[in-house]
Amino acid sequence: MHLGFQMEFAYVKTGAVTPGTTSSNAIVETAWIGQPQSGGPSLQNTLHKFITLTPSIITIAACETPNVSVNMGRHMRAQFSGVGYTTPTVAFDVSINACPANSLTTIQYQFIPVNAVIDANNGLLALDSTSTATGIALQLKDGNDAPLQFNTPYTFAGYNSAAGGSYKVPLKAAYRQMAATVTPGSANAALTFTMTYQ
């Protein structure tokens, strides 16, 4: 007589998932107790079996995004002719690299200001606390010259789910005069770039 049974296993998320390899230790012990048939000997057999799963590799479907530093150049104070004056824009890209194929459907990204937002409608950020220049702000625009919307998800339209690959998000930055008087010094600001995958 042959006896058998079937079992199904599934991973259940209980917290933050990190990539790696699962353990191959025995995870389940099963016991079978043989009951005597009618008229048979009054014996009971207990059979113990340990079930071990082979290690699984856990990967996280995500793209890579290196840090970006933008050199805004040097500007003479005499250039700033009045409130609203804007320096020539500096074009730069945020790279979205090594996206996996056939793993993601859409990619969304957004920019989280580290410094105070002066004017959200015009993409204007205050300089950070290490800056010594005054009277100016940093203006950020997308590749189409529209002011960057902070804390707002953008869907990356150029992503090809079947191919994966690497992409770029084109952006532009400039200084804008915000006060009648501009004092010279360093002028820095920062953003956090975050991505959401589906």
Helix content: under 10%
Average pLDDT level:
84
- Overall 3D shape: elongated
Residue stretches low in confidence (pLDDT < 50, at least 5 long) are: none
CATH topology of the largest domain: Immunoglobulin-like
Q: Which class do the helix and strand fractions yield?
A: mainly beta
| Cα end-to-end separation | 50 Å
Question: Quick one: how many beta strands?
Answer: 12
Enumerate how many helices there are, as a single number: 0
Description:
The protein has 198 residues and is mostly beta strands. It folds into two domains: 20-58, no CATH class; 77-197, Immunoglobulin-like (Sandwich), CATH 2.60.40.1090. The protein is built from no helices and twelve strands. It has strands at 20-21, 26-34, 45-52, 57-58, 90-99, 107-113, 117-119, 124-125, 136-142, 154-155, 165-177, 191-197. The strands form four sheets. It has a five-stranded antiparallel β-sheet with strand order 5-11-9-8-7, with no helix packed on it. It is elongated. The two termini are 50 Å apart. The mean pLDDT is 84.
Features:
elongated; 198 residues; 2 domains; 36% strand; single chain; Immunoglobulin-like; 0% helix
Brief summary:
This protein has two domains: about 20-60, no CATH class; about 75-195, Fimbrial-type adhesion domain (Immunoglobulin-like, Sandwich), CATH 2.60.40.1090.
Question: What is the secondary structure topology, with strand pairs?
Answer:
Layout: E1 20-21, E2 26-34, E3 45-52, E4 57-58, E5 90-99, E6 107-113, E7 117-119, E8 124-125, E9 136-142, E10 154-155, E11 165-177, E12 191-197
Antiparallel strand pairs: 1-4, 2-3, 5-11, 6-10, 6-12, 7-8, 8-9, 9-11
